[in-house]
Amino acid sequence: MAVVGELVYQGAEARLFRGSLFGKDVAIKERFSKKYRLAALDSSLTSQRLKQEVRTVSRLLKSGVPTPSIFFVDIENGRIFYEWINGITVKKYIEEICVTSDSKNELAVAIGKSIAQMHKIGVIHGDLTSSNMMIKTANQEGSESSVQDRLVLIDFGLSAGMGNAEDMAVDLYVMERAFISTHPNIQSTVDVIIASYKQYGEHDTTAVMSKLKEVRLRGRKRVMIG
Questions:
Q1: Tens of pLDDT along 100-126?
Q2: CA pair distance 147, 33, nearest whole angstrom
Q3: Of 68, 29, 91, which Cα lies nearest the Cα of 154?
Q4: What's the pLDDT tens digit per position in 26-84?
Q5: Of 3, 10, 14, 148, whose CB is crowded by the most CB atoms within 10 A?
Q6: Active site (catalytic) residues
Q7: Alpha carbon 113 to chain centroid distance?
Q8: Which residues contact 102 (CB under 8 A, 6 or more apart)?
Q9: Using an 8 Å Cβ cutoff, are 67 and 118 in contact?
């Protein structure tokens, strides 16, 4: 039996609740209807996006990419019941815990490796911010002491499943801009993330890096033009 508890977060497309499913703590992601859309269209879009997210996360889990497990899907009500992660966002981890250069480098290596694992199977996250990554608490079941073992990627609501080199480059560019705009003095950490991505990537990271240079250039031109 499912119990929907407290509202944890509300975004533009979905709400996140903490609840329980057969007595187990879960994170319940609920895509809500948009009143400005025709009811039939809204229902169809919600269903498509929900199914896309479930397919993406299932592929990631099978490939060993660190993401929360899915326990149950309620298509009719637009809900996905995820494993509840005890921990903090990487955003908070950087701001409150990760203060030394060594700890930042360890985190950066873990992030780069996880993104490379994701891109290896063609999955594009679409919103790689430090708020969409979590660090499990060290005592959570199955978690180890290292940051690599405790890092989890979350929120695949904007994900795509068949990305090419340019899509991957844009994913990385979004990550770079999100980290730099959110955290002061983070450029060296971002550089380590990219270096780790290249080191651990088992796909054509050379092509991705080439596209990333092009994407950065386009981004700079947009800033200059305004």
A1: 899 999 999 999 999 999 999 999 999
A2: 37
A3: 68
A4: 999 998 877 777 777 777 888 888 999 999 999 999 999 999 999 999 998 999 999 99
A5: 14
A6: 127
A7: 13
A8: none
A9: no
**C-alpha angle with apex 126: 222 to 123, nearest 5 degrees?**
130
pTM of the entire predicted model: 0.90
Backbone phi, psi, residue 208, to 5°: -65, -45
The per-type count for the chain, helices as H runs and strands as E runs, is 7, 8
The pair of three-digit structure tokens given for residue 31, joined into one six-digit string: 């895509």
From residue 213, alpha-carbon distances to 64, 89, 125, 160 in Å are 29, 28, 19, 22
Contact 178, 130 (CB under 8 A): yes
Phi, psi at residue 24, to the nearest 5°? -105, 135
Residue type, 177: R
CA distance 43 to 53: 16
Write out the two tokens for 16: 């996140």
**Residue 70 in 3-state DSSP?**
strand
Beta bridge partners of 9: 16
CA-closest candidate to residue 202, choices 63, 90, 104, 107: 63
Strand ranges of the sheet holding 2-10, from the earlier edge strand across to the other edge:
2-10, 14-21, 24-31, 79-83, 70-74
Contact 114, 66 (CB under 8 A): yes
